From TrEMBL:
<dbReference type="InterPro" id="IPR039421">
    <property type="entry name" value="Type_1_exporter"/>
</dbReference>
<dbReference type="GO" id="GO:0005886">
    <property type="term" value="C:plasma membrane"/>
</dbReference>
<dbReference type="InterPro" id="IPR036640">
    <property type="entry name" value="ABC1_TM_sf"/>
</dbReference>
<dbReference type="InterPro" id="IPR027417">
    <property type="entry name" value="P-loop_NTPase"/>
</dbReference>
<feature type="transmembrane region" description="Helical">
    <location>
        <begin position="160"/>
        <end position="178"/>
    </location>
</feature>
<feature type="transmembrane region" description="Helical">
    <location>
        <begin position="129"/>
        <end position="154"/>
    </location>
</feature>
<keyword id="KW-0547">Nucleotide-binding</keyword>
<feature type="domain" description="ABC transmembrane type-1">
    <location>
        <begin position="31"/>
        <end position="325"/>
    </location>
</feature>
<feature type="transmembrane region" description="Helical">
    <location>
        <begin position="243"/>
        <end position="267"/>
    </location>
</feature>
<feature type="domain" description="ABC transporter">
    <location>
        <begin position="341"/>
        <end position="587"/>
    </location>
</feature>
<dbReference type="InterPro" id="IPR011527">
    <property type="entry name" value="ABC1_TM_dom"/>
</dbReference>
<dbReference type="InterPro" id="IPR003439">
    <property type="entry name" value="ABC_transporter-like_ATP-bd"/>
</dbReference>
<keyword id="KW-0812">Transmembrane</keyword>
<protein>
    <submittedName>
        <fullName>ATP-binding cassette subfamily B protein</fullName>
    </submittedName>
</protein>
<dbReference type="InterPro" id="IPR003593">
    <property type="entry name" value="AAA+_ATPase"/>
</dbReference>
<dbReference type="GO" id="GO:0015421">
    <property type="term" value="F:ABC-type oligopeptide transporter activity"/>
</dbReference>
<feature type="transmembrane region" description="Helical">
    <location>
        <begin position="56"/>
        <end position="77"/>
    </location>
</feature>
Amino acid sequence: MRDRWRAIRMLARMAFATDPWRTLGLLLEPLGQLTPPIIAVCLKVMTDGVLHHDPVSVVVGAAGIAGARALWFVGAWTGSWLRVRLMEEVGFAFDREIATLTASIPGLDHQERADYQDRLELLRQSQGLLGYSVNSLIYTVNIVVSGLATLVTLAVLSPWLLLLVLFVLPSIPIAAAHQRWSRAAEERSAAPARLARHLRGLTTDRDAGMELRVFGLRREILARFRTAWTDSMRARLTTERRAAVLANVRDLIFAVGFGGAILLALWRAAAGHGTIGEVVITVYRCQRMQAAVMSPIQAVAALGSVLRAADRMLWLREYAGSVAARGSGSGPAPERIRDGIAFERVSFRYPGTEAWALRDVSLHIPAGTVVALVGENGAGKTTLVKLLCRMYEPTKGRILVDGVDLAGIDVHQWRQRLSAAFQDFARLEFTAHHTVGLGDLSRLDDVQAVGSALDRAGASDVLPHLPDGADTRLGSSWDNGVELSTGQWQKLALGRALMRERPLLVFFDEPTASLDAQTEHGLFERYAATARSGSDRGMVTVLVSHRFSTVRTADLIVVVDDGEISEVGSHEELLARTGPYAELYDLQARSYR
Ligand SMILES: Nc1ncnc2c1ncn2[C@@H]1O[C@H](COP(=O)(O)OP(=O)(O)OP(=O)(O)O)[C@@H](O)[C@H]1O
């Protein structure tokens, strides 16, 4: 119950923060629902006035009825007018908040962990309900107020009818059970629903499109989509079937009370204590009694799905808040690295997994060096990069920058000192100029800076080939958009990585996989030379590559093997050691020869 009030408070706060005047205006709407008892009283005053030939009472009663109707009309009219606008505004405010929160969470848990993805899936599914929440809340208040007003009216007219409420009460536990089952069914359906969305996405995804066609996967993917969709619907359908059975039980219980009331009225009429007219009135009042109690219960139950959406929103807020509090120290990021970066017995496993991705890693990277990480697929190279970018915090051990624990440094400040190009680079479909310029927002429109970054990335040949040069819109799915080859996209991503003027740490995590070995080698040889000579601030470059011809340009080579560091040294030192590095280098050199 406390959770429900918390969710209601959150929704009301959001509506008030989004548009206080409209929200206050809407609160007047339920007042219109108080009109039935006012009209009943006024009707009585008017009827008594007619019977007792009292014109004042007739006029007061009639004026009261007209006033109450006007109140109802104004409430209903302004309510629906205000609600539509407020729904749009609140829906937009929630959309914006969800996007802001998911984008600003410093780590990657919510994008890489299945359980968090499931929660986000449910939030995504119920996103529309959040916009609708104002409508639901006001509707529920309206129905509850109107139900209470009707109950009071009926209690005044025939107090004994209140006994019938006992026959409607079983609706409450039945509605509560329905809500519990619905929540459980939604949670069970999250994973298959996400799978279904992924499979549907594959059928429209440009990158998957080629393979789907070459391997004739259309039928297979559609069959899997159907299975996932059926799985996601199964739990919900079972819940609805069980709820339908309970609804019948509920109606049966009420029918017993209702039948008893009618029989009583008939018996009284037969015994000469009442009239057939009273029997008809009893039937009518019993139905109103049922609606007066049942409708609020159903409205509150229907509000349940909105409140579950609000719960998920609260979870996202709390999660983002807790990550921000846990993940970010408040210390300033250094302006330069004097000594170097040290891994001190760092072990790491991805949240929600048992296997160690890194085990007891100790490593010193001196300031001003270019360091290369090599190792087999899955060895842990990218994980080391992710820890340095602070996408995750070490499970054990510490990373020190000039002796200062990285965890104590403000994560946003630290990220401003980084620059990176990844193998899974983002295809930012803007103008070619902005695609590169986004690497340094403060110089987004600086033509010279973009040109110089592209030069250093060996990518100055990309723009002249585009129809509108730097102003060409990228991405063929846009009007006049131009598609690039993977290598061209990758070159622009490299240019983006070289936009920041004074980074302290630059990552190249296999960003040149689409370039040939010689181009990659030439590029890094030039890059490493400028990085060393210009590195007055102790900038460290981390290069991940499977090409040993490139790796040999590094000052320090770190061989990662199954989450551990097996060798560290310069190219010459490692060759002289005739260990795993020398073996792999020789193998690759021979295959090139
Ligand atoms: N998000 C994740 N969640 C759970 N485990 C992960 C995640 N990312 C990587 N791993 C696991 O961590 C280990 C190290 O992966 P990592 O990506 O660091 O390897 P890598 O050396 O960069 O490999 P590659 O050369 O193929 O890019 C692997 O066993 C991988 O399965």
